[in-house]
Task: inverse folding
């Protein structure tokens, strides 16, 4: 076997290749792109929002039951990108950890602590032979009483970090490039600017003019710290304002 070959090293999650790579973890990152979706998170001075595409896999599916945005606690929630079953499992674990934290300490688990806990669990999956990494990526927003609006991203390798803006999915690189330019010009955006920046980024990288039924948006802000999804009417209003601004 040549030392440059991945043969044999991609069969076990716990074995490093001669180049120092864990191939199964790298394959988990590729699984995030399996459904062809892109998700974006943006944080401003007093708010944060997440946006993702809304694709109905089959005409027979009830579209009301299809969503990639989940509430975790009253003041935090996330958008999941990647394999749906893995996403549901990670959200369920996040809700369990949040409920357990509130039961023991008497107050809501902060967004950064939720993501740290999920990242720790995700990292343990990369070193246990009978388990595998989750093929999904979590982008969480939340309102913290001390820190304000928060935006975090957790990946299959168990890495988490706070962001001013981030993305996940098939157009991650293009989205990050777009967001870097926008955030550099205006990093202190208000709630409406945050939402419109997220919509503009997703629309630009996908080269699509969205209808209200084709995207999902959730937001938290100082004005209304409760995590909530925008209705189709509210999304339509934002799309109209964005079109008029451009």
Result:
């Amino acid at each position: 076997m040549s030392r440059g070959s991945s043969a044999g090293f991609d069969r076990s999650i716990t074995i490093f290749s001669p180049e120092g790579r864990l191939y199964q973890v790298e394959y988990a990152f590729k699984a995030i792109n399996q459904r062809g979706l892109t998700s974006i998170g943006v944080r401003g001075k007093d708010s944060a929002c997440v946006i993702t595409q809304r694709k109905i896999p089959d005409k027979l599916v009830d579209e009301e039951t299809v969503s990639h945005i989940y509430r975790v606690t009253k003041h935090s929630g996330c958008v999941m990108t990647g394999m749906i079953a893995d996403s549901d499992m990670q959200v369920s674990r996040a809700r369990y950890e949040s409920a357990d934290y509130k039961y023991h300490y008497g107050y809501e688990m902060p967004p950064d602590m939720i993501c740290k806990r999920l990242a720790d669990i995700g990292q343990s999956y990369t070193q246990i032979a009978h388990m595998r990494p989750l093929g999904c990526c979590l982008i969480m927003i939340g309102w913290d009483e001390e820190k304000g609006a928060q935006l975090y991203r957790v990946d299959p390798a168990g890495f988490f970090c706070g962001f001013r803006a981030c993305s996940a999915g098939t157009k991650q690189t293009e989205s990050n490039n777009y967001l870097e330019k926008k955030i550099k010009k205006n990093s202190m955006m208000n709630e409406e600017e945050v939402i419109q920046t997220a919509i503009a980024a997703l629309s630009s990288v996908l080269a699509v003019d969205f209808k209200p039924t084709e995207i999902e948006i959730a937001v938290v802000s100082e004005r209304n710290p409760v995590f909530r999804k925008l209705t189709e009417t509210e999304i339509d209003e934002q799309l109209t304002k964005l079109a008029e601004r451009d």
In short: The longest helix spans residues 84-105. The mean pLDDT is 91. Strands lie at 38-43, 47-53, 69-73, 76-82, 136-144, 148-154, 160-162, 165-169, 215-221, 228-229. The longest strand covers residues 136-144.
